[in-house]
Amino acid sequence: MGLKNTSNNYGSIAKWLHWLTAALFFAAYASVYFRHWFTERDTPANWTALQLHLSFGVTIAVLVTLRIIWRIMNQAPAQEPGSKLEHGAAHAGHYALYAIMVIMPVTGYLGTKVDTEYFFLFDIAMFESTAMFAWISTTFNISYQAFEAPLDYLHKNILGAWLVWILILGHVLAALYHHFIKQDRTLRKMTTNK
Ligand code: HEM
Ligand code: HEM
């Protein structure tokens, strides 16, 4: 299997980055909902679930950086036949997915009030205790509370609870529509080499 994309298929690097990211989104959601629904406050399980959420999210940030670089270096395979509207919607959807892969980890990190214990291997300092926040706080005369509240709201209540779900659901439904109804190669470009 070639590493790079061809005009017919995504290459193995794009495929790995895509499916690993999809699995990590699932894991980020599963860990945070597990925390809310199945654990009590201030228990070890509650803390572990939070730390796993943070760790999965940080991993997504690293992967999306590699993915954007790889995407710039590699043309995507040609689109399957379709109307201008369909092609435009697919492009817009993919851009929006790239945007949430960046915005979710950034808002999550900036708004988190604890250090990230990355898979319990090493610590990543919370933003409040960094030199960058000290600079922001003195330059703009803003407290951490005032700084993080809108980011936290965006992360949890607007994007996390709604927009990300809608985008992913729309994306998956589009893939299934192509595969089972239009019966074209859209899904196979991301799964096979044939
Ligand atoms: C793409 C990655 C991410 C996704 C999809 C995501 C999604 C979510 C969702 C759905 C929630 C729960 C909203 C609710 O209260 O119902 C949440 C909460 C939270 N996220 Fe993220 N997040 C991501 C990355 C991150 C990162 C990188 C951090 C920090 C390093 C982070 C920190 C938090 C924190 C502190 C909470 C509150 C936890 C809680 O109330 O239990 N997230 N996130
Ligand atoms: C079961 C879940 C998923 C399925 C079945 C799926 C399927 C696909 C397929 C078939 C393509 C190729 C579309 C084309 O070339 O026109 C694609 C591309 C893409 N997917 Fe997914 N996907 C899933 C989950 C996700 C998730 C969770 C994200 C990100 C949050 C995501 C982000 C993307 C992006 C950004 C592209 C465009 C890649 C590029 O050309 O640069 N996908 N996906």
CATH topology: Fumarate Reductase Cytochrome B subunit
Secondary-structure element pattern, one letter each: HHHEEHHH
Taking the sheet with the most strands, its summary is:
2 strands, antiparallel
The helix content is over 70%
- Quaternary organisation of the protein chains: single chain
- The structural domain count equals 1
Instruction: Kindly estimate the percentage of residues that lie in beta strands according to DSSP.
Output: under 5%
Shape: elongated
Please state the structural category: mainly alpha
CATH class: Mainly Alpha
CATH architecture: Up-down Bundle
* Poorly predicted runs of 5 or more residues: none
Mean pLDDT: 96
How far apart lie the N and C ends?
10 Å
Query: Which molecules other than protein and nucleic acid are bound?
Result: protoporphyrin IX containing FE
Widest beta sheet: strand line-up: 1-2
Pfam families: Ni_hydr_CYTB
Subcellular location: Cell membrane
Domain Cytochrome b561 bacterial/Ni-hydrogenase: 10-192
GO molecular function, one term: electron transfer activity
